[in-house]
Amino acid sequence: MSSCVRAVVRGVGARLPERIVTNDELSERVDTSDRWIRERTGIHQRHIAAEGELTSDLAVAAARRALERAGRRPEDVDLLLVATSTPDNTFPATATAVQRKLGIGPAMAFDMQAVCAGYVYALTMAEALLCCGRARRALVIGAETFSRILDWEDRATCVLFGDGAGALLLEAEEGTGTMLDRGILAATLSADGRHYEHLYVDGGPSSSGTVGHLRMNGREVFRHAVAVLVSSAHRACADLGITPAEIDWFVPHQANRRIIEAVAKRLEIPAERVVATVDRHANTSAASIPLALEHAWREGRLRPGDLVLASAIGGGFAWGSLLLRW
Ligand code: UT7
Q1: Which positions ≥6 away from 180 have C-beta within 8 Å?
Q2: Does ligand 1 lie within 6 Å of residue 314's CB atom?
Q3: 140 and 27, same structural domain?
Q4: Domain span holding position 195
Q5: Could you give the residue numbers annotated as active site?
Q6: pLDDT in tens, 88-121
Q7: To test ligand 1's pocket by mutation, which of 30, 222, 258, 281 has the most ligand atoms within 8 angstroms of CB?
Q8: Which residue, 153, 175, 197, sits at the end of a domain?
């Protein structure tokens, strides 16, 4: 049994904007209905950021909660990673806005852009940096204000997304090298740019000089999402020598209840071990997994020692799966 360094969760936090927008409220703006949205997506409502409430504001609130719950101060953090596709500004990194608002001095801080797979990518990067000794304590935040890049006249997309942020505080800790260790135990990341046009924003600094709006070929994303989430979950589990049925909690990216159910079924994970928050949060992109983790933790379902499988796919397509012992 060889020792090795693990990236262990010490605290979790979340922040959702105050304002809740129901499906009925949206049906007054576009040609849709509560029934269509519930049946096709499982979404009942979403939180929408207030005017002037920035991605970094949500991120800071989530980060503060994670720090409090870990019993740590902002200045204890030496790596700040924000997974987001809706940064405050094109640059600098939203991570540096968060750093400034938290009053953290010089530390490594950068953003991770892998859209809905952003949080799995960010956790994997944080783990790599903690495990090779480049950092000791990492705040890994998923934070989004997708409401700002939605086309509010496109019923096919505007009903699907919400705003929010979630954060984990991870610390480097000596483990035994077995799968009984706490912390991140396996991860697999991938992307395939041939699908770039199925889910994208039709603007950007280099292409149009504008921010742009989200565009999606929903059917095509759905089709790939199920297949890719299943194969990447199997791959992460195989790295650890287990099957998906052996995990305690499946915490998938929250885009659509039908995708979550189809994936869980194929992985033979029973519904009671699936964390689903898509009904109340809608799709919060990179924030959806940490928001779901915080929700399960706050409800007392997620306990120290539980084995969590987190999987996500989004624009790019980019996707990944990760195994974490809480
Ligand atoms: O986070 C990144 C990953 N993103 C995803 O995973 C999203 C994946 N895709 C999906 O979740 C689903 O494809 C959607 C929820 C986006 C759409 O569900 P669908 O069952 O694939 O519906 P559809 O796109 O095939 O549309 C069915 C019908 C269409 O009408 P026709 O052509 O059959 O007459 C749409 O125009 O539903 C219509 N429609 C709507 N009707 C009422 C589309 N959006 C709406 C709406 N309200 N909001």
Answers
A1: 325
A2: yes
A3: yes
A4: 183-325
A5: 116, 253, 283
A6: 999 999 999 999 999 999 999 999 999 999 999 9
A7: 222
A8: 175
